[in-house]
Write a structure and sequence with these properties.
The structure holds two protein chains of two kinds. By secondary structure, chain A is mostly helical. Chain A has helices at residues 3-30, 35-39, 46-55, 62-74, 88-123, 128-142, 145-159, 182-188, 192-229, 232-239, 244-265, 268-281, 287-296, 300-328, 330-333. Chain A is globular and about 85 Å long. The relative contact order of chain A is 0.14. Chain B starts with a strand and ends with a helix. In chain B, helix 3 crosses helix 4, helix 4 packs across helix 6 and helix 6 packs parallel to helix 7 (183-200). By secondary structure, chain B is of the alpha/beta class. Chain B has helices at residues 43-51, 77-83, 105-117, 121-134, 140-144, 153-164, 183-200, 211-217, 235-240, 245-252, 269-288, and strands at 3-14, 17-28, 32-36, 58-67, 70-71, 88-91, 171-175, 203-208, 220-225, 228-234. Chain B has eleven helices and ten strands. In chain B, the strands form two sheets. A six-stranded mixed beta sheet of chain B has the order 6-7-8-3-9-10, with helices on both faces. In chain B, strands 2-1-4-5 form a four-stranded antiparallel beta sheet, with helices on one face. Classes of the chains: A mainly alpha, B alpha/beta. The A-B interface holds A 126, 231-243, 250-251, 254-255, 258, 328-331, 334 and B 51-53, 56, 81-86, 88-90, 92, 94, 97-103, 111-112, 115-116, 147, 149-150, 163. The structure holds adenosine-5'-triphosphate (ATP) and magnesium ion. Adenosine-5'-triphosphate binds next to helix 1 of chain B. Magnesium ion (MG) is lined by residues 43-44, 175 of chain B.
């Protein structure tokens, strides 16, 4: 990607976020349900309710509420959560690392599984085994992540209780972490016992997220491998006496990878969206799980903060995918 | 002279279509043999059979291909791969698609040398630079670090020619190595192929529809039509006394000083179109040549 293209992309970020913010802000207030109604004790007087509304600025006209909120956000103040009575920024900051670690592990697992399936499928081309693999892959692709979460929960939590099915870390192992990136931190400080426990907790939810994504990667990559294998340069490698595996690894795979990354990279946003239900099912303390509580409680500031966080993640992800593609493809690197 | 490549009565079918119908062909050590015929005659299928690159639906229904005394079609995969790239090499038709777009020129050239000559990466790159110098590429060290898209078509074809001769093969199959190139570059590339052949002592099977090229560089020639050999012999003999009306038609389409290209004699209707295209191309070639 050229610098000018990159700058153009960066310049589009603020208006995108502004748009997302405005839509969420308006939608929240148009949809029935009111945060005050959720927090007042039964039998509160109308005067009390009015006072609470005024406290959270909910008595103001929509536009002035929006402008106030914008001004606060611009100065880094995302407001206070109504239900949790803490700063949104701190709440999200404490939970986001858990989600990022879970999503990252899922993506790594999915890439490993998807690549392996695609390579094996390519080597088996034309056999019955290839057909079986494709069929199985289609099955994995068809089942969405939250269903996998339930299946894994039943399978490995209940029927064959091998793995923990809730939470992020065994409370007995909890130490005073300096950051909220528990996995990264425990690996860096060589607390491998803690890292292992974190991974055990993450395994089922990340598998649920990874399985359909892995199937997608496998299907895309396998198709791209087949296409690259037909290209002249791959055929010419055969006239030079290289083995099929060498050609697959050196000529075909690097070329097939480029469109695969471009096409599947965007789908990582779906995986991130999937964390909402999957974290809920496994009581994993990330921002997805938090978002559901925020919605149940009509916690406007928290919902707004979380949605902006997701929007920033999606934008960053798309940008990262484009940069990665440019890195893999010398034709793009040189403009 | 002894034959290094001997194809005997080769039949290849793709589905119901008989693409090659009894092709026999000999290439002597060190000679340049032209393989001529219109588009679809089966010229590339001959090369593909030798390299084991026939389409998956294709079947060799009869015949034998022997290279340096060994039956190529019966050879186990590993031994066959040991010959390919080392003893038999290809100069492909389209330099734009024949190099891997995401690998550096140096890596692509060195890989062949490392595979067959067991050179270290460093030695292979040094040898690749020498080969690039042989094909008149200036600043070879820099070119080795470039990606294919940073080179012109003519440069890429030079790289491919250098790679073909890298392991001193005894047979190089050049499948229309100049058709995809600019007319002005075509002649340079032909000269280069000829120079590399002399230097490395290879025989060349030169696939083309250009009789002008055949007349210039081929000692012997084979004319293929619809999967069958129509003519076979020394170029001089075939061009002077063609046996077959088809060859005469091809010749008639080739411009000469004493006969303008547009004075085409009547030819079988099916051929007219391809011959016109050929004549037109030769016209352009002639126009580009300094008077
Ligand atoms: N993959 C394929 N499947 C089916 N038929 C094919 C395939 N490739 C080539 N053919 C057929 O085989 C015949 C010979 O093709 P070939 O490529 O050898 O011709 P050619 O003489 O090299 O022509 P050109 O000058 O256009 O390269 C043609 O009739 C063509 O239609
Ligand atoms: Mg051809």
């Amino acid at each position: 990607m050229r610098w000018s293209a990159l700058l153009k992309r960066l310049a589009l970020i603020p208006p995108t976020l502004l748009g997302v913010g405005a839509i969420v802000f308006v939608l929240l207030r148009v949809v029935p349900g009111d945060p005050i109604a959720m927090m007042i004790p039964p039998g509160a007087s109308p005067a009390d309710i009015a006072r609470l509304r005024a406290l959270y600025g909910l008595d103001q006209p929509l536009l002035s509420q929006f402008i106030t909120w914008l001004g606060q956000v611009a100065s880094g103040d995302f407001g206070r959560s109504i239900s949790l009575r803490q700063q949104v920024f701190e709440l999200v900051g404490a939970r986001l690392p858990a989600t990022l670690e879970l999503a990252a592990l899922s993506v790594v697992l999915a890439l490993l599984m998807g690549t392996a399936v695609a390579l094996v499928g390519s080597l088996l081309r034309g056999t019955r085994a290839e057909w079986l693999l494709d069929t199985a892959n289609g099955f994995f692709l068809a089942i969405p992540d939250f269903l996998w979460a339930l299946i894994l929960l039943l399978g490995f939590g209940v029927l064959l209780p091998l793995l923990p099915i809730s939470g992020r870390l065994d409370p007995q192992l909890a130490i005073a972490f300096r950051t909220h990136f528990y996995l990264v931190e425990s690996l860096l400080t060589l607390r491998l016992d803690i890292a292992a426990d974190l991974l055990r907790h993450m395994l089922l939810p990340s598998l649920a997220l990874a399985l359909p994504f892995a199937a997608l990667v496998a299907r895309l990559l396998k198709a791209q491998l087949a296409e690259a294998e037909d290209q002249d340069y791959a055929q010419i490698a055969r006239t030079r006496g290289f083995s099929r595996t060498t050609i697959l690894q050196r000529e075909v795979f690097p070329n097939a990878l480029i469109p695969t990354v471009a096409l599947s990279g965007v789908q990582v946003t779906l995986l991130l969206g999937g964390t909402v239900l999957v974290e809920r099912i496994f009581s994993y303390e990330g921002i997805g799980n938090m978002a559901i509580d925020a919605v149940i409680n009509r916690d406007f500031p928290l919902i707004q903060g979380l949605i902006l966080t997701f929007a920033v993640l999606f934008i960053a992800l798309n940008l990262a995918v484009d940069l990665l593609v440019a890195l893999l493809d010398p034709r793009l690197r040189h403009g | 002279m002894s034959a290094i490549l001997e194809i005997d009565n080769l039949h290849v079918a793709i589905g119901a279509a008989n693409v090659l119908r009894g092709v026999s062909l000999r290439v002597e050590a060190g000679e340049v043999r032209g393989l001529v015929g219109e588009s679809g005659a089966g010229k590339s299928m001959v090369g593909r059979t030798i390299f084991g690159l026939l389409p998956s639906r294709a079947k060799i229904t009869a015949g034998c291909v022997s290279f340096e005394g060994r039956d190529l079609l019966a050879l186990p995969d590993r031994q066959r791969r040991d010959l390919l790239g080392r003893r038999i090499a290809l100069i492909p038709q389209d330099p734009m698609t024949s190099l891997n777009p995401v690998r550096r020129i140096g890596a692509q050239m060195a890989a062949v040398l490392q595979l067959h000559l067991k050179l270290s990466k460093r030695a292979a790159l040094a040898r690749a630079a020498e080969l690039l110098t042989e094909v008149a590429i200036r600043d070879p060290a820099r070119v080795l670090t470039l990606y294919p898209h940073e080179l012109s078509g003519g440069m890429r074809q030079r790289v491919l020619i250098a790679t073909a001769f890298a392991c001193d093969p005894s047979l190089v199959i050049a499948d229309e190595p100049t058709t995809a190139l600019d007319v002005t570059v075509q002649r340079q590339v032909l000269q280069l192929v000829e120079r590399m052949r002399q230097r490395h002592g290879a025989a060349i099977l030169f696939v083309t529809h250009d009789l002008g090229v055949v007349a210039k560089i081929c000692r012997s020639m084979t004319v293929l039509h619809a999967g069958r050999v129509l003519e076979d012999g020394l170029t001089a003999d075939v061009l002077v006394k063609p046996h077959h009306a088809y060859t005469r038609a091809l010749l008639a389409a080739t411009p000469r000083a004493d006969r303008p290209a547009d004075a085409l004699k009547p030819v079988p209707p099916a051929l007219i179109e391809s011959l016109w295209a050929e004549a037109h191309r030769l016209d352009q070639l002639a126009a580009a040549r300094p008077a």
